[in-house]
Amino acid sequence: MLKKIGWIIIICTLFLVLWPSSITAPQLLNVFKLTEEPDVIVRGTSGSAMTLDISFGDAALEKWIAELEAPYPLLLVDTAWAMRFPDSAELIRKKNIPVALLGKEGAFYEEDTALFTEQLEEFTILFGKKPLWFRTSDEVFPKLLQDSLWKHEINALGSTLRWKGGKLPPHKKGEILTAALERKGTATLDDIDRLLASREFQSVEDVLFATDVKTKKIPE
């Protein structure tokens, strides 16, 4: 009788230990699963996010990055620039500033199907991680590029407004504002500081995850 009770206790214990592991736990929504198919994210519905495209800059930009304080904007970095200024790239990494991959104009990815993969590898070496976000410099995302981003589990990020300096833009709920530091651009670091001081910014993830996501359809 005691032997039988002992076996019952052992069987019940094994059941209690193994049973929870057989149940599929609910999965948290990750950044990549914002859309059900390849698409371009351009805004949420509340808050404001600031993103900065960087393809040009020297010692002045490095100083600006060194003095930048949280909450940080999302920096989208051209790997060609980052390789020319490795100290600035290292500073971004050490300060744990959110960073993503900035590409060339969209048409280049139709002409060279290996271009995105090469830039992705460069980014991963520079920053020690794969980006969650990718943007072309002109915010044009050909379908082949969208499919490649989807395959690599990276989101295509556009913007609600690309600001080029001058008068500050009016606030819009869920906006993703973009300024660009580029060779022929008109926005300066002083302009970007004015924009950063104009309102309370949140991370792109906070603006998107707390709300419905606005997307932009791309022609086939």
Question: What report would you give on this structure?
Answer:
The chain is an alpha/beta fold. The chain is 38% helix and 17% strand. It is built from nine helices and nine strands. A nine-stranded mixed sheet has the order 7-8-2-3-4-5-6-1-9. Helix 7 (143-151) links the parallel strand 5 and strand 6 (155-157). Helix 2 (59-67) packs parallel to helix 4. The termini are far apart. Mean pLDDT is 84; it is low at 2-30. This is ABC transporter substrate-binding protein. It comes from Sporosarcina gallistercoris.
Task: Give a topology summary.
Elements: H1 2-18, E1 40-43, E2 48-54, H2 59-67, E3 74-78, H3 79-84, H4 86-94, E4 99-102, H5 107-111, H6 115-127, E5 133-135, H7 143-151, E6 155-157, E7 161-162, E8 175-181, H8 189-197, H9 204-209, E9 214-216
Parallel strand pairs: 1-6, 2-3, 2-8, 3-4, 4-5, 5-6, 7-8
Antiparallel strand pairs: 1-9
Protein name: ABC transporter substrate-binding protein
Task: Categorize the overall geometry.
Answer: globular
**Radius of gyration using CA atoms only:** 23 Å
Protein structure class: alpha/beta
Strand content: 15-25%
Low-confidence segments: 2-30
Largest sheet, strands/sense/barrel = 9 strands, mixed
Number of helices: 9
Q: Give the proportion of residues in helices.
A: 25-40%
Q: Compute the number of strand runs.
A: 9
Name the helix and strand elements from N-terminus to C-terminus, one letter apiece: HEEHEHHEHHEHEEEHHE
Whole-number average pLDDT?
84
Distance from first to last alpha carbon:
74 Å
Widest beta sheet: strand line-up: 7-8-2-3-4-5-6-1-9
